[in-house]
Amino acid sequence: MARTDRSRNIPHWYAGDDDADVLSLTSGEGARVTDDAGDEYLDFMAQLYCVNAGHSCAPIVDAMTQQAREIPYVSSSKTTPARDELAARLADRAPGSLNDVFFSISGSEANESAIQIAREYQDASTVLTRWRSYHGSTYAAGGLSGDPETRSVVERHAATTGVGKFLPPMVHNSPFDGDTPDEIGQQAADHLEFVIKNEGPDSVAAVLTEPVAGTSGAYPAPPGYFERVREICDEYDVLLIADEVISGFGRCGDWFGIGTEGVEPDMITFAKGVTSAYAPLAGVLADEEIAAEIRADGHPLGQTFAGHPVACAAGNAAMDAYADGLIENCRELAPYLEQRLRELEARYGAVADVHGRGLLWSVEFGDPETGEPFVDPRVERDADNPVEDVREVATDHGVLFGSGRPDTQVLCSPPLCIDRADIDEAVDALATGIEATF
Ligand code: PMP
């Protein structure tokens, strides 16, 4: 395959020289992308879980073009109709009283804004996040993350302050010993209460967590977990912040992942899918009372490109696309994707578990003989990772999948515009990868 010269361009999440052969994509249409050699791929990852409306969606491109012609940039301390409209529409789709939006640019910055707001509002500094979580790569957001590789960078520079960690409520490879998902959910919630009590509830400003885990493995919490977490947060006067950077905008079959839990958080952070990744945009949706305090007292912080008008125009058009059938398509196709992935679990010993929600799924691998989970090679620095081989074979068969943190899994997060035939094609390529590897 031909490659453009990328010798001066350092890719993000660069794994070193082994990672040199990255794809250079030149065009996309719907769920398909084409590289600089003309080879086509089914993008079963929506790039980084973000091109939710698919590539080259004409109404989004048109809205951006029109906005750029009218006025491409307006200061983030002023406003413009596209920005106001998007804020109103987000408030309309968000649960309950989350009616005000503080725009940002990236997911990392949205999370940093949310914790700045929470700390000011609560006059308390500790924020609790899950081990294994991912909340961004900038210093403060990297410190919020529970992923060992991300944290190792920020902690080396002593940049993590005011963050405590709690154990995730995952069922596969769970740190808890409950016999059923419900029991594990209960144990995980009790554990969070223990952590809050021992941190000292007055010092805890917020719990920040993904409603459905993203990069750490597409796992939803067991039934009842979030209801209990909401009760605990209320009891100890701790804010609940849902990081919806991946789980929002239809990805889990609803506007927001927390919507699938029936729980109302105090803030939601969003990014990625809000514009279907056509332009960088992110933000914090805040409860009216919190927002009222910001409005009354002021909030002397901001970013030049927050709520960029061209990105807001993309956001408004993307929200139309989600409402006009994409979220429904996600809901309709989710059981079929699950069924096809469970077939792989039944057929191959190396597939240890599959879990997910909507069109966000993880295929977890383990030793085909013993069933033992693989150790994350990025933490152990073990160059030989069979899961990487599975993905490579799938890529050679024309389907792009994602890697998780830990990298013991293949992640599925396709654009929401796919159909059943796309799912069949992806699952077949994955099966070919598994057969070639194990
Ligand atoms: N939160 C979550 C849950 C994420 O998955 C990500 C990125 N994958 C972020 C925050 C950070 O977003 P960004 O890369 O836009 O800074």
From TrEMBL:
Coiled coil: none annotated. GO terms for cellular component: cytosol. Keywords: Pyridoxal phosphate. GO terms for molecular function: pyridoxal phosphate binding; transaminase activity. The keyword Oxidoreductase does not apply. The keyword tRNA-binding does not apply. Belongs to the class-III pyridoxal-phosphate-dependent aminotransferase family. This is Taurine---2-oxoglutarate transaminase. It comes from Halolamina pelagica.
